[in-house]
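Page 37, continued from 36.
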C-alpha cells in the first residue's frame, strides 16, 4: 500500500488537489474530518478543551464553538500549542484506525493523507512521499481576503500561525505550484498520480510474482 502526505498552508489550493486525487482513485484521509470527529459530542478532547478554555468556547447545545476557539488560538501561540496537545493525539488515533481499515479492505490502495498541519502537528506516520501545495504567503493572504472574506489582519494572523513556505518546501518530494493555472496544476497532479500508480502496480506484481 502506498501512503502519501498532502500538505500546504491555508488557501494554498491543497483541497483542490485532494479532490482531484479522489477523482483519480486515491483514498483520501482528511485530517480536518478527523479533527471534527475528535471534538464531537462525548469525545475526551472536547471535555479537555472545555476544562482548559472554559464555557466561552462551548455553544448552548454543548458543541464546540469553533469561531470562538479560533479567535483565541490564532491570536496566542501558547494557547494554540495547548489546543494542539489536546487534539492531535486523538486525530492521530482516528487517522491510524481509518488507515488500518483501508488496508484490510484493499492492500493495494493508494492513500493520501490530507494534512494541513503536517509540520505543526509533528505527525510520525510512515509516508512514502510528501506532496506540498505551494503558493507564496502573500498570494495566500490575498486569497483569504478576496475569496473567503477575511479582513487583512485576520488573514495575516492565520497565515502567520502556520509553518513557513520554506519549511514546507524543504520536506517536499513533490511540489505543486498553485500559482499556475488550474489546468496546469491538475495536469501536474495527474502526472504524479500516473507515476505512483505505475510504481504501486509494479510493486504488487513483484510481490505476487507476476
Amino acid at each position: 500500500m502506498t501512503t502519501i502526505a498532502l500538505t500546504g498552508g491555508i488557501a494554498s489550493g491543497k483541497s483542490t488537489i485532494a479532490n482531484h486525487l479522489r477523482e483519480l482513485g486515491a483514498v483520501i484521509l482528511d485530517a480536518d474530518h478527523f479533527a471534527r470527529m475528535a471534538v464531537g459530542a462525548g469525545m475526551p478532547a472536547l471535555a479537555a478543551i472545555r476544562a482548559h478554555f472554559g464555557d466561552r468556547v462551548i455553544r448552548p447545545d454543548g458543541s464546540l464553538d469553533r469561531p470562538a476557539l479560533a479567535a483565541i488560538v490564532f491570536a496566542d501561540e501558547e494557547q494554540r500549542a495547548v489546543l494542539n496537545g489536546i487534539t492531535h493525539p486523538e486525530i492521530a488515533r482516528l487517522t491510524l484506525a481509518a488507515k488500518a481499515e483501508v488496508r484490510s479492505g484493499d492492500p493495494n490502495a493508494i492513500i493520501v493523507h490530507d494534512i494541513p498541519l503536517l509540520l505543526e502537528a509533528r505527525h510520525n506516520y510512515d509516508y512514502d512521499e510528501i506532496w506540498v501545495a505551494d503558493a507564496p504567503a502573500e498570494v495566500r493572504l490575498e486569497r483569504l481576503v478576496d475569496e473567503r472574506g477575511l479582513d487583512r489582519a485576520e488573514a495575516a494572523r492565520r497565515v502567520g500561525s502556520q509553518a513557513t513556505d520554506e519549511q514546507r518546501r524543504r520536506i517536499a518530494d513533490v511540489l505543486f505550484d498553485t500559482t499556475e493555472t488550474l489546468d496546469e496544476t491538475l495536469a501536474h497532479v495527474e502526472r504524479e498520480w500516473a507515476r505512483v500508480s505505475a510504481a504501486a502496480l509494479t510493486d504488487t506484481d513483484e510481490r505476487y510474482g507476476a
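The longest helix spans residues 77-105. Flag for discussion at group meeting. The domain at 2-202 is CATH 3.40.50.300 (Rossmann fold).
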